[in-house]
Amino acid sequence: MDSRPDASANAALAADVRKPVTFCFLDLADEPIRVTNAPYSFTFSGTGDEDLDGFTFTAVDPRVVSVGPVKAREGGTDTLSLQLSGLAGVDDELMTQIGDRANYVGRDCRLWRAMLDPQQLTRIGSIWSYYTGYMSVPKIVGDRTSQTINLDVESYLAFFGQASNRTYLDQQSYDPGDRSAELAIAIANGASRRS
C-alpha cells in the first residue's frame, strides 16, 4: 500500500467541495478499535494491509471524535492528538480501562485517508496511509456536565530519536545553586563534603 494518494484520489483532493475521510485503528490490549468519520461504516478487502483487510471501520459522528492535524517537523512529526468529546459522564468500567497503562502505552495507532464521492458516497481511488505511531495514556478533562478524553500519539521516529543524555548530573545547568549531583558523587565515593 502506498503512503500517498493515487491519481484518482489526488484529483478528488483538488476539488474544492471534497474532503478526505479518516480511518482510525487503535490497537487496545482488550479489543482493538476501528472507526471512521465517513458517513457510513466501511469493510476493506484486497488492500494488502493486515490492519485493514477483513475489518469493519464503524462510522462515528465527527462532532464527537476528532483527530488533530499532523504537523511535520525535523526528525518526524509532532505529537498527534485524538479527542473523544460530548461524554456526559465516565463510568467505573471506562475509568478502569483508561487507568490501565497496558491498554494503551506503546501500542499502535494507525490512520488512513480516502476520498469519497459526495453524491454517491463511494470511494474515489485507493486508501492511503496517513499516520502511524504509538499511543500514550489518555487523559480525562472536563466537569460534571461534559467530559473529554484526550489521547496523544507519538510518531515512530520520536521513539528512535537520540536521547538527550540528561541526568540529575545536569541539574546545575538549570539551577546553579543545586549541588545535589556533586554531593551524591561525593557520598558514592565515600567522602563527606560540607558546604
Task: Annotate the secondary structure layout.
Elements: H1 7-14, E1 21-26, E2 33-36, E3 42-43, E4 56-59, E5 65-67, E6 72-73, E7 76-77, E8 80-87, H2 92-99, E9 108-116, E10 123-135, E11 139-142, E12 147-155, H3 156-160, H4 171-174, H5 180-188
Parallel strand pairs: 2-4
Antiparallel strand pairs: 1-2, 1-9, 3-4, 5-8, 6-7, 8-12, 9-10, 10-12, 11-12
- Secondary-structure-derived class: alpha+beta
Oligomer: single chain
Number of helices: 5
Shape: elongated
Fold and architecture overview:
This protein is of the alpha+beta class and 195 residues long. It has five helices and twelve strands. The chain has helices at residues 7-14, 92-99, 156-160, 171-174, 180-188, and strands spanning 21-26, 33-36, 42-43, 56-59, 65-67, 72-73, 76-77, 80-87, 108-116, 123-135, 139-142, 147-155. Strands 1, 2, 3, 4, 5, 8, 9, 10, 11 and 12 form a ten-stranded mixed beta sheet that branches. A two-stranded antiparallel sheet has the order 6-7. A hairpin with a 2-residue loop joins strand 6 and strand 7.
Write a concise keyword list for the protein shown above.
single chain; 195 residues; alpha+beta; two-stranded antiparallel sheet
Short recap of the structure:
This protein has 195 residues and is α+β, with helices and mostly antiparallel strands.
